[in-house]
Specification:
Elements lengths: L1 H23 L4 H19 L3 H8 L1 H12 L3 H6 L1 H25 L4 H11 L4 H10 L6 H23 L6 H12 L14 H31 L4 H21 L4 H11 L6 H25 L3 H6 L1 H25 L4 H10 L5 H12 L5 H39 L10 E4 L5 H10 L4 E5 L2 H8 L6 E2 L5 H6 L7 E4 L4 H14 L4 E6 L2 H9 L4 E4 L2 H14 L4 H23 L12 H17 L10 H7 L4 H13 L1
Parallel strand pairs: 1-2, 1-4, 2-3, 4-5, 5-6
Helix pairs in contact: 1-2, 2-14, 3-14, 4-13, 4-14, 6-7, 6-9, 6-16, 7-18, 8-9, 9-17, 11-12, 11-13, 12-13, 16-17, 16-19, 17-19, 18-19, 25-26
């Protein structure tokens, strides 16, 4: 028991310390976990920990991640990906296998060993890539979707690879492989051992069919039965049981457990229990993925690495370069453009966690000698370790470079108007339509070329360019404009743009889109006095509808909503006096105490029922804290 507690503490402490540091340095959580694993590897060696066994357990994190990804995809969405899945995914696996195989044969390896090496390095790391894409918000991009299609096809291709590898056996290695596997044979379980080809196929199809059947028809009654107990922990246990059970079934029939749980996730994407499953599984997914990354770092054989440092590094760079070239070629063929092309090529350039499984199989199946497999394991691990650095390179160099290229290609603005709008998305687009419908002329600038292409097909006139650039603002007619509407994404860019315009063009009336409550304070400090929170009005309308649905008359609901808006504005004025952008809100003691004080006043006022809305300003004035005095002080400070 002490050993288990000590090992658990070591892994948890390493992650808790390393990941926040890595994240603050801009390295990302994946690299933080990998570094943590490297740091604790000597301690694990002293304690005699079997890192590979821990890694096999931690692979449940990958399984859970694919299950959650499946929950986000409806079957229709998966079907819409078929071209990328078969074209991009299939092309990547086949071309990478052939290219790496050719390189291995050029280095003197027999074709059987070379083919096995090609198969190993055709795979990429689902765990690292999906985690990083989700962290950076890139999964929905064209490059992210193409990367996911390739990873999904690889998970499917692993099934064929597991069947193909034993057929490549070299007679000279059979005796050694028999000795290697005899100690572990007793522990293996399988539903397809001893079956011929067609029997194995039938059992495999039956297993997949059972997963689909259970997802469609068994999960709802089972979860309803469990929900009847009224115990949250039972629901969590049932969700874990389902994921682990599917992974076990897939393993017993020789399929990838990640693929099986992904299928289950897709089947349950339309389930009423989808969100509950997601919230129950996600914490375990995060912890186990972190453990998996730490075991990758801890599993690096530094003795062998330092003895063959030049060779291992050269092989790692060579493999990643070959894979990146193949991916770049596919990006041209399938028209993946711009930054997405480089995200696709760099993000999938590493080897993957299934490479460890295939290399183990190649040794036990007498395909690759143990000495060579040990070196290839280092190449796999080192390439995974380098992947976060490639994503950092993409962020800091590639993305910025393309951003600068886009800036230089801004449209020439032919005519200016009274109203200048920055941003033509879900906020700016509606504002522009309203103004044009009322007869006002507008000049619209947006930085998304793809979106502009779409709206132009409907006859909307807009210009491509970065509205945060002073030269483009001049070209768009900011000096002649009477009103400037800021509707761009990005809180920091929005605030800085408002600050620049208020400083250099004080006569222009600025209307700014605020992303949240704190952003209102930032924009106010930047000089804007006409600030619209992007979701506030719609939220108030929903609340008003809820009032009427709960029995209020329309007049009472409207009056209550108006009072709520007035109270909210009052509280924002009072809180603005204590807001400090340099102090995190959760650490600003004065701000927190004032929130609690206002909440207590609200509670007192609402004892009157809905009539209590709209009385906060009067109550504060009676207490000697008149919001109008605070506003006047702000204005005096701004003028000074």
């Amino acid at each position: 028991m002490t050993d288990i507690l000590l090992l658990t503490f070591i892994f948890l402490a390493a992650g808790v310390i390393a990941v926040p540091i890595a994240t603050r340095l801009g390295l990302g959580s994946v690299l933080g976990y990998l570094i943590a694993g490297i740091v604790i590897s000597p301690l694990l060696a002293v304690l005699g920990v079997d890192v590979i066994s821990v890694q096999h357990f931690a692979e449940l994190g990958v399984v859970m991640m694919l299950f959650l990804v499946g929950l986000e995809l409806e079957p229709k969405a998966l079907w819409s990906m078929r071209t990328k899945l078969l074209g991009v995914g299939g092309g990547q696996v086949v071309l990478t296998t052939l290219v790496v195989m050719g390189a291995a044969m050029a280095m003197g390896q027999p074709w059987t060993i070379a083919l096995a090496i090609g198969l190993v390095f055709s795979l990429s790391s689902t765990a690292i890539v999906v985690q990083t894409l989700n962290e950076k918000g890139l999964m929905r991009s064209d490059g992210g979707q193409s990367s996911f299609s390739v990873l999904l096809f690889q998970d499917i291709a692993v099934i064929a690879m597991l069947a193909l590898v034993p057929l490549l056996a070299i007679p000279e290695l059979i005796d050694l492989a028999a000795t290697h596997s005899s100690d572990e044979e007793h522990a293996s379980m399988s539903l397809v051992d001893g079956l011929n080809g067609w029997q194995t196929t039938l059992v495999t199809i039956a297993a997949v069919a059972f997963v689909i059947f259970a997802g469609n028809w068994l999960t709802s009654p089972v979860f309803r039965f469990i929900a009847g107990a009224g115990l949250r922990e039972l629901f969590t246990a049932a969700a874990l049981m389902m994921v682990v059970g599917i992974a076990l079934l897939m393993t017993l029939v020789g399929l990838s457990p990640a693929l099986g749980t992904f299928i289950a996730g897709v089947v349950l994407a339309n389930s009423e229990y989808r969100h509950e499953l997601e919230s129950d599984i996600d914490p375990f997914r995060g912890l186990l993925l972190g453990l998996f990354f730490m075991t990758v770092g801890a599993g690096i054989n530094f003795g062998l690495l330092f003895d063959n440092l030049g060779l291992i590094v050269a092989l790692t760079i060579g493999v990643m370069a070959l894979k990146a070239l193949v991916l770049l070629l596919l990006s041209f063929i399938f028209k993946i453009r711009g930054t997405d092309r480089w995200l696709f090529a760099l993000g999938l350039a590493q080897a993957g966690e299934f490479g460890f499984v295939l290399l183990s199989l190649t040794v036990s199946s007498s395909v690759i000698p143990v000495a060579l497999a040990d070196r290839l394991l280092l190449v796999v691990a080192l390439s995974m370790l380098l992947t976060p650095a490639l994503f950092i390179f993409y962020d800091k160099v590639i993305a910025k470079r393309f951003s600068l290229d886009q800036q230089s290609d801004a449209d020439e603005i032919e005519e200016t108007s009274q109203v200048l709008i920055a941003g033509l998305g879900r906020v700016g687009g509606v504002v522009n339509r309203m103004l044009i419908a009322a007869g006002y002329k507008t000049t619209v600038v947006d930085f998304s070329s793809a979106h502009l292409q779409l709206v132009r097909t409907f006859g909307v006139k807009a210009y491509f360019g970065d509205a945060t650039r002073p030269d483009l603002l001049e070209a768009a007619g900011i000096r002649e404009a009477s009103h400037f509407i800021v509707a761009i994404d990005g809180k920091h860019q929005c605030t800085e743009l408002v600050r620049y315009v208020r400083l250099h063009f004080p006569n222009v009336h600025v209307i700014a889109r605020a992303h949240d409550r704190n952003h209102v304070y930032d924009l106010y400090a930047a000089g804007c006095r006409d600030i619209i929170r992007e979701t506030f009005d719609s939220s108030v309308r929903m609340g008003t509808s809820a009032f009427t649905a709960l029995g209020m008359s329309e007049g009472e609901a409207a009056k209550a909503a108006t009072g709520f808006v007035a109270d909210d504005r009052t509280s924002m004025i009072v809180m603005a006096d204590l807001y400090d952008p340099d102090i995190p809100t959760g650490e600003n003691t004065a701000y927190i105490n004032k929130v609690k004080e206002i909440s207590a006043i609200h509670t007192e006022l609402m004892a009157e029922g809905p009539d209590g809305f709209g009385k906060l300003a009067k109550k504060l004035a009676e207490m000697g804290e008149d919001p109008s005095d605070i506003v006047q002080r702000f204005e005096d400070e701004a003028e000074a």
